[in-house]
């Protein structure tokens, strides 16, 4: 039997979010119904809503959900009704990368999470007036009061931690943290540069502050975000609207360059500057995602000093071990995620979108 719930629907590319009643399909064997408590708003949601990615619209987005399990399919074993869960991406669980502990690089990641809008078998999870809608976004489509969620998107978490305080862990935070911990892995005395002080970049700054890196540089064009970056662990900040980035980084690193760079802006000009600022054998992690097909020109000879440019999806994290560890850090006050969060009632989703676009909110979290 289907379940009627209230959801934020995007009718077409560039249209606003509108609240409407939709029907959730009956849970499959490896799915669960989750009553949403909170869900983060991410730039990926806005990119899809704008029509910039080939997701089927009308549809229901949302991929940083947190809530309470209400019902589970017959084959679900990892959670039970009443469990508190953070929702993250889904994966097949069977391909080489899933088996190897890298589900963010699942062979079917794109259709299962970002552009398919359906289950792997092609069936729809959400409909309206008998017509299928785009859904199954990151295995969850959490811009709704209730969500039909893939078992592999579910991560059981400590019920003592308020869900609105940890909803962003499912995407943006684990991406920034994973860029530092899972890819750069700073050695003692390392220099880490974070390009962009949004939610992902500031998560990377907080993660770097929990490593042996001794120089942590945050770069942005907004002074208030750089001030926050300093409070969260950055040892240096650079306002790229006021200073030449290359000269500033050369001065901070005494001409040696950065051991690690996290690029979160999606601006290829900034990416190129980040690569140029690397030290010999340094690594730049590409996190920011420009439109499909975007290319960047690099100085090939400049790479021959052992520089590496590495793409990253969702922190290259194995969510069922990674996210609970982040929850513990939030609970203990060592990952002050609350400094990034602004909460909005679900009905005010369009105000949250506007505030995010205007730079007034770093990480909007919708509450139900």
Describe the fold and architecture.
It contains eleven helices and 18 strands. With 368 residues, the chain is an alpha/beta fold. The strands form three sheets. Strands 3, 5, 6, 9, 10, 17 and 18 form a seven-stranded mixed β-sheet that branches. Helix 4 crosses helix 5. The relative contact order is 0.15.
The arrangement of helices and strands along the chain is EEEHEEEHHEEEEHEHEHEHEHEHEHEHE
Q: How many β-strands, per DSSP?
A: 18
Largest β sheet strand count, sense and barrel closure? 7 strands, mixed
Which structural class matches the secondary elements? alpha/beta
Q: Mean of residue pLDDT?
A: 96
Radius of gyration: 20 Å
Q: Could you give the distance between the termini? A: 24 Å
What's the number of helices? Answer: 11
Shape: globular
Instruction: Tell me the β content.
Output: 25-35%
Question: Could you give a quick summary of the protein structure above?
Answer:
The chain is 26% helix and 26% strand. It has 368 residues and is an alpha/beta fold.
Which features does this protein show?
seven-stranded mixed sheet, globular, 26% strand, 368 residues, six-stranded parallel sheet, alpha/beta
Task: Write the topology of this structure.
Elements: E1 3-10, E2 17-24, E3 31-40, H1 43-49, E4 59-60, E5 65-72, E6 84-87, H2 96-99, H3 109-115, E7 126-128, E8 131-132, E9 146-150, E10 154-156, H4 172-184, E11 191-195, H5 199-208, E12 215-220, H6 223-232, E13 236-239, H7 245-252, E14 258-263, H8 268-276, E15 278-286, H9 300-303, E16 308-311, H10 319-331, E17 341-345, H11 349-357, E18 363-367
Parallel strand pairs: 11-12, 11-14, 12-13, 14-15, 15-16, 17-18
Antiparallel strand pairs: 1-2, 1-4, 2-7, 3-5, 3-9, 3-18, 5-6, 6-10, 7-8
Helix pairs in contact: 4-5
